[in-house]
Amino acid sequence: MSTKKTTSYVGLGQTPVNRIFSLLKHIDYSIFFIVLCLCFIGLLIIYSTTHMQATEAGSLFYVRRQLIYVLAGIVLCFLVSSIDYHEIEKIATPLYFIAVISLLYVIFFGKTTAGARRWIVIAGFDFQPSEFAKIALICFLANYFYKQREKIPYFIYFSLPFLFTIIPMLLIFRQPDLGSSMVFLAILLCMIFVAGIKWKHIIVMFLIGVASFPILWSFLKDYQKNRLILFINPNLDPLGAGYNVIQSKVAIGSGGLFGQGLFSGIQSQLKFLPAQHTDFVFSVIGEEMGFFGALLLLTLFIFVLWKGIKIAQDAPDLLGTFLATGVVAFLFFHIFINIGMAMGLIPATGLPLSFISYGGTFMISNFIAIGILFSVHIRSIFS
Amino acid sequence: MFNRKNTQITGDFIKKRLNDLFIMIILIFAILLVNLWYLQIIKGHEYEQRAINNCIRSLEEEAPRGEVFDKDENLLITNRPAVNFTVIPAEIEDYHSLSYQISSIIPLEESYLINKFEQLSQRPFQAQTIVRGLEKEQIIAFEEQKYKYKGTLLTIQPERKYLYQDFAAHVLGYVNEISEEELQSSNYQYLSGGDIVGKSGIEKHYDAYLRGKKGSKEVEVDALGREILTLKSVEPVAGNDIYLTLDSELQLYIQELMTGLRGAVMVSEARTGKILAMISQPGYDPNLFNQQISIEKWEEISQSEENILCNRSIQGVYPPGSVFKLITAIAALEEGVVGLNDRVYCPGYFELGNLTFKCWRETGHGTQTFRDAISNSCNVFFYTIGQRLGIDRLNHYATMFGLGEKTAIDLPGELSGLVPSQEWKRRAFNQVWFPGDTINLSIGQGYLLTTPFQIHNMLCIITNDGNVYRQFHVDRIVSQSGQVIRKYEPEIIRKVDVSADTFRVVKEGMKKVVEEGTGFNARVEGVSLAGKTGTAQNPQGENHGWFVGFAPYQNPEICVTVFVEHGGDGSQSAAPIASDIIEHYFRQTSGQAVQLKELQ
Fold first, then answer.
1. Using CB atoms, which residue from A254, A267, A298 is nearest to B33?
2. Fewest CB within 10 angstroms: B338, B345, B535, B558, which?
């Protein structure tokens, strides 16, 4: 394994702009194309669920905004991929602290919607710091494991990252956003696993987790507890909290093999599901595009994740490997939780579906994650 | 202690771990896919049936509008439950045949129903009302054959109930479904098609307060449309109640006096601007608009010769005739074109060049002083001083007393009338202002057009020596929790710049009008009052009769304006009615309370 790279790439221009363009030639456009396909499906579904809403801005209001987020995401993705990922060694720690501070800020001064304080308003835009904190954590942990790569198998060196992860996790948990805080844990576990934790430690961790469950339970808000209880038995309260899950299953189920067609899902168009264009977007896909549509979607996701794993394996050094692993974990966990939730396999925690769900900060953080993958990939070509 | 080799991680090891991770990812995706297969393929048909048959309906529950009370807190407008015929467009299989079947139960045109269905299908999953206020027999007929009509249901929604039918109809107004134009307006931002809004009167002007907030309900229904479960329910919030300044007893008394006549009567509290009564005849029953009203019926109402929907007080414009002489008189005194002791000889006519303008008394009034002229309403005197004033000054004073512009009363649809000017005539007719036009204007004829309420407002200004009180109908608005949201206090909105002496002299003249002049028929025993009659010639037919007056003379309590459309001479038609009103008012206030029950 090569440890240090002095980067002098063949054929790079002098000016930053030229540099960016010559680097862009080496981007893995198969990933990029698949991601654009996903965004397109997302836009279709958002249009299908929101075009009936009578907003002042007309039926294209949400679609237009989502399109702007996608374009902004693409630009940021290219920018990030043109940066040498070794810069992360310098910025990982400050990035982490900025993330923690902004999460603290949200807790005290954030904007509240639907009972949760998740937003800060910057220059007129609602901004969700927890999404960027996920990227910051990926960078921070990758850097940590890279620096401590010799010592990972020792208990103390893999337990420290827990501490770093738990701080932003708890802050997000307080917002409250159970789903997002679980994403932090997922990123950490995947990265530790890849970094080489011993199996016996994995077993110990699992036992600690089970033992600490009652303590975590006491931290949960009532509605979160309800969701967990209703996850185990949704029929306890078909009118209230269990309602969404039942109706989501009905929606997906009624899609059948080919779906009921875009814009004509009975359940979806009825607007009985909250957050159809965000958290329950998969229910709409299931109903309107059917099994084949959902299968296509899952295949596209698998492709992106597989490419991510490949990039992690072919990375020029461990920093690249860990970064790519983090990105894969981040994307995967969102996909798994969102779809699992829509099918009633997982408690309804409310996580958006990568590249599909409506939302600016989330879309942009997804594209930044892809940008990091590209950055690692480009350097592996030149190594 | 430990073996360094064992702890060293290698690139191969990490690649293996990454492979393991990917295998886990694939496994989880496989689980998701198997689940999808189970939900969509194995159970798909079942879920589809559930989605179609056990479908969710989202129903709206209309909010009861706020109630309306008179000044003594007697209830005037309330709500009662009515049965509405409601459809969910998406659930209807064939609306042509449905329209055909429905039209046999409810007497509505098939084409009207089809048209309505097409409108409603813009919101296919929303239950929407097609016919309001079904009769008992219709409900029974519908219930008997309910199974035939898929996608339809009867809902119970509040319906506006005007307790005393045509009582104060023009003030209270009526409600009906929101129109397309109203939907576009920002005043009705959160409303959607089929919602009930105020269409005129208090109902419209205070709609935002009265309206309330719709509730919603999501219910799961089976294939027969029976409700199985209520999934979500948001209770509607009733609108705010309104307490009027209206004196129902007086209003009813005047309404009876005016029966059979056309015209308008207004009574205000002199020192506050509170409107105690406002009558426009003929009236109508606002309850009529609760039911679905057919196009023919609507045309019959809105295009009737009687024009019953028009609130003549604020939406009819008429020449004011001699009541305008009060303005001419005030202007003349203020501008010093006539002295109190100046005399003008009235031979029964007035000559201007080769034109002759007649006095209403053909034999003439002889020599007239200022006060005589008001009392006798001598045209020749006012022609003379009007000519001295000229159009510009007449226009200035008329405008100052609120003529030619809206009075800002709290009712919708007010007209502004017209006070002519040289400029206006040039624009309207491309003609210069002739001296003869001034002569006509000086006695309230010619191009001058006013609403009866503007004249009433002018009377109130004179009564209050130039203080312009805001004229209003609503005393307070009270929320359902009993909290007073708005309280309207008497308010002087501006002051007319005319000297107290002028007002004193003009009012003395008005006193003389009733004591010995043209307003003799308005006198009331035991009450001293002052007034002015008017007889307005108009091209449509018989003259309009006017009377304006206030009482008591020394310390005015009420201002009364009576306008009788085509009633003939004001002293014969309007003055006696004013007399009855004033007499009744002062008899009532000195004891004998009349129960509102008698109204019914």
1. A298
2. B345
